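Input (structure):
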């Protein structure tokens, strides 16, 4: 079958092969025919080595498709079902799951260290234990989440990561209050979803911050009340909050410099939500006095900070009701053979989300 493979960490191009085989099918496993997958910035981060991932590997973790076959003991899906690929399934038995913090379950991460593809030259890993830049993938049953028939594959793919992450950051992690002021730094697909979440919660002011003009213009269409470049953020802070700082600031880039900027633009007693996935050697510096004196809350948000399955259901309900716009997030569509074009679109910032149609 056809798949896009990264040979070595640090390479910036993927190579398309048609001799890839999805492996590991058996009890408790599901084989999925991938129909659509989104390109998430985490894929680029893994390719660059910012996020740990063994190589060679197939990127992609934001996918949707249909079940081809199920292994013994699988009861949650059957052949022919439409599914979202969940890269962070909950095992239901670990301490985090028992506490209700299923987004902190490590079962899915353990899959990342086991190859789930092979080529004539040897084993190939799937990013985050999945790897959706391919025609077929074999995953644990918990990674295959059934969706209603009226949800298109491209919309379902977005729900698999970016939309769930951004919406959840606003609705679950921050629990944005009506009438509050919000700033979102980084307005790709995840940042735009956070903006939509803040709008749903009734935020009075939502300032979108991004260096790319087209993304700032898009943010206004999705609910931002003001859109500025990073250099214009101090003026926005002054005009919107009289210099006090925002009630909520979402950092959706994954860099310490951006997180520091976000912290400085959060009001005393306000909330900084860290959504971007950064590198292990990139350290955020805060002094002990400001931590004590400013009493700002710093809340990391992993995969939207809530129960993933419930978040999927909520997102579908909001989309059906017309309360959120998911179709508008897809600014580009390319076939798998043009995957490197999609990578360039994300690196230059011209896309919110590129859908790879498989």
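Output (sequence):
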């Amino acid at each position: 079958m056809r798949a896009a493979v990264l040979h070595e960490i640090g390479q910036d191009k993927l190579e398309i092969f048609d001799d890839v085989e999805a492996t590991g099918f058996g009890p408790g496993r599901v084989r999925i025919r991938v129909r659509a997958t989104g390109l998430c910035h985490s894929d680029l981060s893994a390719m660059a080595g910012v996020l740990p991932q063994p190589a060679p590997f197939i990127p992609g973790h934001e996918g949707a498709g249909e079940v081809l076959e199920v292994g013994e003991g699988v009861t949650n899906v059957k052949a022919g079902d439409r599914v979202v690929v969940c890269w962070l399934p909950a095992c239901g038995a670990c301490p985090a799951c028992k506490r209700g913090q299923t987004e902190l379950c490590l079962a899915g991460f353990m899959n990342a260290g086991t190859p789930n593809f092979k080529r004539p030259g040897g084993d190939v890993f799937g990013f985050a234990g999945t790897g959706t830049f391919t025609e077929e993938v074999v995953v644990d049953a918990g990674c295959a989440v059934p969706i209603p028939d009226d949800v298109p594959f491209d919309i379902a793919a977005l729900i698999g990561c970016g939309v769930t992450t951004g919406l959840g950051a606003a609705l679950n992690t921050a629990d944005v209050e009506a009438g509050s002021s919000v700033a979102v730094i980084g307005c790709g697909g995840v940042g735009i979803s956070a903006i939509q979440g803040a709008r749903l919660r009734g935020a009075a002011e939502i300032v979108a911050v991004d260096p790319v003009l087209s993304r700032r213009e898009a943010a206004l269409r999705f609910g931002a009340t003001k859109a500025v470049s990073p250099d214009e953020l101090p003026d926005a802070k002054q005009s919107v909050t009289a210099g006090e700082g925002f009630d909520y600031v979402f950092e959706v880039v994954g860099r310490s410099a951006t997180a520091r900027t976000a912290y400085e633009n959060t009001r005393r007693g306000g909330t900084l939500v860290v959504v971007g996935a950064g590198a292990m050697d990139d350290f955020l510096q805060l002094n002990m006095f400001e931590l004590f004196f400013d009493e700002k809350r710093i809340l990391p948000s992993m995969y939207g900070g809530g129960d993933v399955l419930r978040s999927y259901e909520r997102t579908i309900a909001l989309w059906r009701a017309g309360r959120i716009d998911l179709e508008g997030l897809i600014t580009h569509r390319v076939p798998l053979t043009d995957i490197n074009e999609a990578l360039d679109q994300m690196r230059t910032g011209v896309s919110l989300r590129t859908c790879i149609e498989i």
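Notes: The chain has a mean pLDDT of 96. The first strand starts at residue 3 and ends at 5.
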